[in-house]
Amino acid sequence: MEKQRKHSTKAHQFRSVPVFLSFLAVCVIPFVLAQRNSATESRRIANAPWPSPKRTLTFAERVAYQRAIEEVYWRHRSWPKERPDPKPSFDVIMSRAQLEKKVADYLRNSQALEDNWQRPLTAEQLQAEMDRMAKHTRQREVLQELFEALGDDPFVVAECLARPALAERLLTSWCAYDRRIHGDQRQSAEADLHALRTVEEMKQLSGKYSEIELVKPRVLTNSYTLPAIGGGECVDDTWTATSGPPDARDSHTSIWTGSEMIVWGGSANQITLNTGAKYNPSTDIWTVMSAANSPSARSHHTVVWSGSEMIVWGGQDENFVPLNTGGRYNPSTDTWSPISDTNAPTARSGHTAVWAGNDMIVWGGGDGSDYFNSGGRYNPNLDSWTNTSTTNAPDARTNHTAVSTGDEMIVWGGIDAVNWFNTGGSYNPATDSWTANSTTNAPVGRERPAVK
């Protein structure tokens, strides 16, 4: 979207402290939609006569349709050019259990609207959501494939494409404004807000605030006809809000996927976080990541990009207890999967991790009392760990660096309780062997001063 700064305004809002509901499980389901090749076909699906209310879908049918939807998304997921291996099949990146969980989550969201707020989704609401999709989507060919994957059946489109998005959106809205959940925090925030004279005074308050930029569209129209994909124009006489960046933090991680940056974890005010966001520089937009099934909150951990997933491992919690757990995040489906801790390296932080073709290699680090020259290789396809050899490995250390050449991991520098190192080594995962690196002309290492 082309931004016209002179027409921009800033809206500010308070975020209340999140409150966990034991009866409510919210899963943010990604909903990247597009339009059919013609506006006529889009309106035909959106405004098709609603079938008999007696018609239902079994859970197995919903899972089958969810698979069809995810396969469309995966076909349109670009594969990094730097990856020498071919793009894996859909069956490799998403299991039936994951599909079943996605279906269970959106059905649970729908039921929560009825049970907790007496707001069951109606046929009229689902038809309105279908109409919204057809009117506002910006990727024609993707939406066409989604409709075709669902048999061009309005009932199935409504139940399996419209219901997940609408249920999640309404649930978030009702939860956010429910005074039963966080009425006290909201009342306090509103009282503080009324006492403010300037926006800058918000930064002096005890709560957290965020800024949302509302960008006025360059072209206004009520027509269903959309500009060419990537045309950078809004298509409706509305204002569009873009998400802001994640909460302030440090000791977090970030990776580049080939099209966007993903930021996750870290700490703020001595509280560790298990939240994050995706940033797309081509649109200058942040998108909040799902926290459902994400690893426990942590800082000083590591992440690698496998080509289709971000893999998180290790680090420490807010009590400085080291961790040997992690998780895998798929940005195309906005879902987390746990990783096995069987045979995983000893819990640690200050370690390094690199992606070497098929495995994540973790090495070094410490647990607060010991330093390690050990590590492990994690294979996401097998969800299994293999120990790395310590024969001829560099001295145990933390806060070092490591890079992958594609064939080897090269480690250098770092510290232990006594020394700063100017040594390192090269690890070959194919042979599980280490080779010492030359120190000739290497930067100077030195002894650490004693703590007085």
Describe this structure in words.
The structure is a single chain. With 452 residues, this protein is an alpha+beta fold. It has 2 domains: 17-201, no CATH class; 253-447, Kelch-type beta propeller (Neuraminidase, 6 Propeller), CATH 2.120.10. Helix content is 25%, strand content 21%. The protein is built from 8 helices and 23 strands. It has helices at residues 39-46, 59-75, 90-93, 96-117, 123-136, 140-149, 154-176, 179-194; strands at 9-15, 208-215, 240-241, 253-256, 261-264, 267-268, 271-272, 276-280, 285-288, 302-305, 310-313, 326-330, 335-338, 352-356, 359-363, 375-379, 384-387, 401-404, 409-412, 419-420, 424-428, 433-436, 446-447. Strands 4-5-8-9 form a 4-stranded antiparallel β-sheet, with no helix packed on it. Strands 10-11-12-13 form a 4-stranded antiparallel β-sheet, with no helix packed on it. A hairpin with a 2-residue loop joins strand 14 and strand 15 (359-363). Helix 1 runs antiparallel to helix 5, helix 2 packs across helix 4 and helix 2 crosses helix 7 (154-176). The radius of gyration is 25 Å and the shape is globular. The termini are far apart. The model is unreliable at 1-43 and 216-242 (pLDDT under 50).
The shape is globular
What top-tier CATH class of the largest domain fits best? Mainly Beta
Overall CATH architecture of the largest domain: 6 Propeller
In helices, the fraction of residues equals 25-40%
Radius of gyration: 25 Å
How many distinct beta strands? 23
Strand % is 15-25%
Instruction: Give the termini distance in whole angstroms.
Output: 58 Å
> Average pLDDT, to the nearest integer?
78
Helix/strand class? alpha+beta
